[in-house]
Design brief:
Elements (H helix, E strand, L loop, with lengths): L5 H23 L5 H18 L10 H16 L5 H26 L3 E4 L2 E4 L3 H22 L7 E8 L2 E10 L13 E5 H7 L7 H4 L2 H11 L5 E8 L2 E10 L2 E4 L2 E2 L4 E5 L11 E4 L1
Parallel strand pairs: 4-11, 5-10
Antiparallel strand pairs: 1-2, 3-4, 3-8, 5-11, 6-7, 7-10, 8-9
């Protein structure tokens, strides 16, 4: 007879789901709002708890697991645009985690028992969380060593506004199609920190860039000579959104001026590993 503590089931499964979701996001290079990540992990923990309750054991079957997986992915990644890529990578990460857990059970000769035609291993909650953390750490290590962008993909970007210039590393990405919907002018995307360096007297913060319309009103009052715009965008986990943008005086890539002078500023980090602060069109 196995004794199940529902609070431990929730905490362990939520922690494991959070780590695996974070791993999938690292592999896709995408992002999502932190509250969606936590909500998805919490949903996974609740689904695991529900499967332990009388009359809801069917949630532990394949159809129930598929239902829980779909709900978790919908909460964390959404379903539009390129969300399917995150769904697929999360499935692969889960399979890798399951394979690692089975390998550890075999190596450590962890005892098992059968119930309802299934085999259960007596893995501790701490060990499960450690294995999920190992999967996340291994993926991050491989990304940092082998998947970090090098060579011509990375370049030095100089953004000039008035008498100030902000320098940052940038990634050339053919998938960046951000542009002004009215004029069709292409735009680069930079971290909000670059804008803060260009306008230090305004004391710009990340929270202000999360409200682009309010930010543009403040810029119009403080610096009416600035040419500001709102650019719509779509990304993984974001069905529709707006970015505050500025028309700069000069943009240079590796010291060479380029025609693109429209720069949008993101309140979230563009590089999960911190390898670059901006993305330019390839």
């Amino acid at each position: 007879m196995a004794v199940v503590y529902i609070d431990e089931v929730f905490l362990v499964n939520a922690a494991v789901d959070w780590l695996l979701l974070k791993t999938a996001l690292s592999l896709t290079g995408g992002g999502t709002r932190p509250r969606r990540l936590w909500a998805g992990a919490g949903f996974g923990g609740l689904a695991a708890c529900a499967a332990c309750l009388p009359g809801l054991g069917w949630l532990g079957s394949l159809p129930g697991a598929a239902l829980a997986y779909s709900g978790l992915c919908l909460i964390c990644f959404g379903w539009r645009g390129r969300a399917w890529k995150s769904w697929l990578w999360f499935f692969c990460v889960c399979c890798g985690f399951a394979g690692l857990a089975l390998t550890v059970c075999s190596l450590l000769r962890i005892p098992a028992f059968t119930r309802g035609g299934r085999i259960y291993y007596r893995l501790s909650g701490r060990l499960l969380v450690l294995l999920a953390a190992a999967v996340y750490g291994l993926c991050r290590l491989l990304l940092d060593r082998f998947a970090r962008h090098r060579g011509r993909e990375l370049l030095r970007l100089e953004l000039t506004l008035g008498e100030r210039t902000a320098c940052c590393s940038a990634l050339r990405d053919t998938g960046n199609t951000l542009s002004d919907p009215v004029t069709g002018e292409p735009a680069l995307v930079a971290s909000w920190r670059a804008a803060a360096r260009l306008l230090p007297e305004l004391g710009l913060t990340k929270a202000q860039f999360e409200d682009p319309a309010g930010l543009l009103l403040r810029l119009a009052e403080a610096r009416p000579e600035l040419r500001t715009r709102l650019l719509p965008f779509r990304a993984v986990g974001v069905d529709r959104g707006l970015l505050a943008a500025l028309v700069l005086d000069r943009v240079a890539e590796d010291g060479k001026p380029v025609p693109t002078r429209l720069a949008a500023f993101s309140p979230t980090e563009l590089s999960d590993g911190g390898g670059y602060e901006a993305i330019v069109q390839g």
